[in-house]
Amino acid sequence: MQKFRITKNLYLYQFPPFEGDHVGYNIYAFIEDNTAMLLDTGFEAHGKAVHEDLNSQGINITQVLFSHFHPDHISGLPALAMPELYGNHHYKNTLNKYIDKTKHHYFEGLNELNENSVLHFGEFDFKFEFISGHVECGLYTIINDKYIHVADDIMTSNKSEALLPAVHISGAQAHFDSLEKLKSYAELTLLLSHGNPISGGEQVLTEISQRQSYLKALAQSESPLSLEKAIAKCTTQFLHTEWHNYVYR
Predict the structure, then answer these.
(1) Per-residue burial over 198-221, b = 16 or more CB atoms within 10 Å of its CB, e = otherwise
(2) Which of 81, 114, 197, 221 is in the most buried spot, having the most CB atoms within 10 Å?
(3) Helix, strand or coil for residue 201?
(4) Which residues partner with 87 through β-bridges?
(5) Residue 34: what are its φ and ψ, rounded to 5°?
(6) SS3 at position 122
(7) Residue 219: what are its φ and ψ, rounded to 5°?
(8) Which of 93, 151, 149, 92 is nearest to 119 (CA)?
(9) Whole-model pTM?
(10) What is the distance between the alpha carbons of residues 35 and 235, in angstroms, rounded to a whole number?
(11) Which helix (H) or strand (E) element contains residue 186?
(12) pLDDT over 90 for what percent of the chain?
């Protein structure tokens, strides 16, 4: 685990990929005196490590905001001491699909967000844009109008190498549309669930357009595309191109 200071009272906990993989895992911690709000909890070992680090400083995790409800974002919750929870109100279908029902009780009482919701924690203000494509219950989280957490819509390795968008064909157009929405936030710093922050309007727009090129090819094709045809107009060399094998399954 590595810990990076993003700005005053905002820290990134970054975990390495599993062996043979390129996908690292991020948890963000917002600090207010002796309390913390987490954005995602990773897998259970990740959540436990963040809890132990903060606890060693006398900081209690009192709130958790989920960017979406895939296992690598929510499975660290059992390692925490019953924080208050926030997430997209479309979360239940994803939870039912990926999480064993014996663990659903951890999410009871979750505060369901909508696009007009606003949260405050210490010096941080949070606004939201609902997104879908990668998952139906995604959130862009706008933080103090300076940062935007983009969930899994843009992913890189921990070395900032681009990862292929992870999407089923049924969500390709929605994923493209979510990235189109992200363009209006290009001047903010992108905080990723997987990978390192990205800033600079031109760089952000380039990262978006490369992924949209792949997604557009998928969405507009009337028949399944090979990887080579789907990325034909991309100039970025994506890692985890094997994810394309799951687009049509």
Answers:
(1) beeeeebeebbbbbbbbbbbbbee
(2) 197
(3) helix
(4) 112
(5) -105, 25
(6) coil
(7) -65, -35
(8) 149
(9) 0.97
(10) 44
(11) none
(12) 99
Token pair listed for 36: 């913390």
Q: What 8-state DSSP symbol labels residue 69?
A: -
Average pLDDT along the chain: 97
> What does each C-alpha distance from 1 to 20, 50, 78 come to in angstroms?
17, 9, 19
Backbone angles phi, psi at 181, to 5 degrees: -65, -35
Give the model confidence (pLDDT) of 59-105 as tens digits.
999 999 999 999 999 999 999 989 999 999 999 999 999 999 999 99
Residue-wise pLDDT tens for the chain (249 aa)? 999 999 999 999 999 999 999 999 999 999 999 999 999 999 999 999 999 999 999 999 999 999 999 999 999 999 998 999 999 999 999 999 999 999 999 999 999 999 899 999 999 999 999 999 999 999 999 999 999 999 999 999 999 999 999 999 999 999 999 999 999 999 999 999 999 999 999 999 999 999 999 999 999 999 999 999 999 999 999 999 999 999 999
The predicted structure's pLDDT at residue 8:
97
Please, which contacts does 122-128 make with residues 24 or more away whose CB atoms are closer than 8 Å?
A: 122/9, 122/30, 122/31, 122/32, 122/33, 122/37, 123/8, 123/9, 123/32, 124/9, 124/10, 124/30, 124/37, 126/65
Contact in structure between 180 and 136 (CB atoms under 8 Å): no
Specify burial of residue 235 (Cβ count, 10 A radius: 0-12, 13-18, 19+).
Answer: exposed
At which residue do the structure tokens 């879908």 appear? Answer: 132
- Integer distance in angstroms from the first to the last C-alpha of the chain? 34
Amino acid at 186: A
Lookup: tokens for 198: 């990205």
